[in-house]
Amino acid sequence: MNIKPNLYIVTEVFYPEDTSTSYILTQIAKRVAKQFKVTVICGPADYHEEPRVERAVIEGISIRRVKLFRLNKNIYWQRIIRLVVLSIMLSFRLMIYAKRKDKVLIVTNPAPMLIIIGFICSIKSLRLSVLAHDVFPENLVAANLLKKGSFCYSTLEKIFNLSYSKAENIIVLGRDMEFLFRKKLQRYFSVSAKTNVTIIENWADVINIIPQRKVENKLVRKLGIQNKIIFQFAGNLGRLQGLEILIRWIRQIDNDALHFVFLGEGAVKKYLVQFIKENNMHNVSVVDGLPRKQQQLFLNACDVSIVSLASGMRGLGVPSKTYNVLASGKPILYIGEKDSEVGYLISENKNGWIVPPGEFDSFKSVITQIAMMPMDELSRIGMVSRNVAVNKYSEEWILGKFENLLYLK
What is the pLDDT of residue 73? Predict the structure, then answer.
């Protein structure tokens, strides 16, 4: 009888949460459960309406939730306290359960957990893999929470880089992230070549998300914009998406044939609503976020999908929504650096347009170009996106990469 090796997945969120991180880790856990005895150590199911369950087993996966006192995640100082306490509790559970040579998979949030678990894996000889959804402390600079070159930044950079170097695998989402991590870990590679930096992209749900005609979309009909050329930003309305600049650009576009939709939740949503109201912008709608299970509806509620990252975000992340946008068969208007993963994707496949951050004239030119296009041409470009999703980013293919990396390495 073959005994499966142990794999511990440590994360703030897991099933039944509906966030992208929870969904991704749940699907990974289900896939690798064929090869491993999987134990998930996670936080309480605060995002979900169902009663919290501290122990459960789903599809052969053992879930162990830590108890945590209630704090408001929307209040900054309370969120910081929560993340620190949660990181300590999750790490302590791992230290108790895991034994020498067991494998561990974590994501880069919450950030303090990366530091603590890196130390634990080092002293207990655990085989750590880190799935890098964020890059610390660089993303704090991009969010204007920290100044690059400051004493605080330099100290955190050394601490986090040392923590990353404790991993057997760093799993990154794109080529720009791979370049950044190799640079961050260069000094450690000269001492030890144990850390493997591997690209495994997010995947597209090509089964449940398929192209749909705009005139058939319930959300489009509800907004009454069937006859408009619709640009949509759907996802996290946060500080790292550059949306405050984008909405000011949109205010300068004078074309009644166009309509812009922002769909989601986040720190910038209130600002968007207020700006639209103050400037009497009738060509923009802000729609409340919808659950993941309704992606077929809202991703198809447009002609062109906008993917946007703030200046300075190259190498710091790849918006996971990009891949389901591809599945929905939509052209992509990308506002971000050309030499980033989404920029490479569009340049290589000719399925959209790239506008560098801060270049309004380029944005205006692209919008004008799209406004003059026949709808058949937009549909043709959208089908290029769909074909890319099916052929390069299917869930089966991407999850196979995780299985191979974790089991064979």
Answer: 61
Q: Which of 382, 231, 385 is nearest to 323 (CA)?
A: 385
* 19-30 confidence digits (pLDDT tens): 888 999 999 999
With respect to residue 209, please indicate whether it lies within any of the assigned structural domains: no
In a domain? residue 208: no
Alpha helices in 174-228 (DSSP H): 175-184, 186-189, 218-223
Q: Say how far apart CA 62 and CA 76 lie, in whole Å.
A: 32
Same domain assignment for residues 144 and 229: no
Are 313 and 188 in the same domain?
no
| Residues 112 and 257 grouped into a single domain | no
pLDDT mean across residues, the chain: 90
Q: What does the buried/exposed string (b/e) look like for 368-389 if buried means 16 or more CB atoms within 10 Å of the residue's CB?
A: eebeebeeeebbebbebbbebb
d(CA 353, CA 154): 36
Query: With left for phi above 0 and alpha for psi between -120 and 50, is residue 315 left, alpha or beta?
Result: left
The ranges of the chain with pLDDT < 50 are 48-53, 191-192
- Residue 289, Cβ density class (10 Å: 0-12 exposed, 13-18 middle, ≥19 buried): middle
- 166: helix, coil or strand? coil
Q: What are phi and psi of 380, to 5 degrees?
A: -65, -45
Contact indicator for 267, 239 with CB cutoff of 8 Å: yes
Separation of CA 363 from chain center: 24
Strand, coil or helix: what is 118? helix
Q: Is 204 helix (H, G, I), strand (E, B) or coil?
A: strand
Amino acid at 64: R
The CA distance from 343 to 312, in Å, is 14
Q: Do 272 and 355 belong together in one domain?
A: yes
> What's the predicted TM-score (pTM) here?
0.87
In angstroms, how far apart are the furthest CA atoms of the chain? 70
In angstroms, the CA 295 to CA 263 distance is 11
Q: Identify the domain containing residue 98 by its residue range.
A: 6-203+394-408
Whole-angstrom Cα distance, residue 90 to residue 64? 10
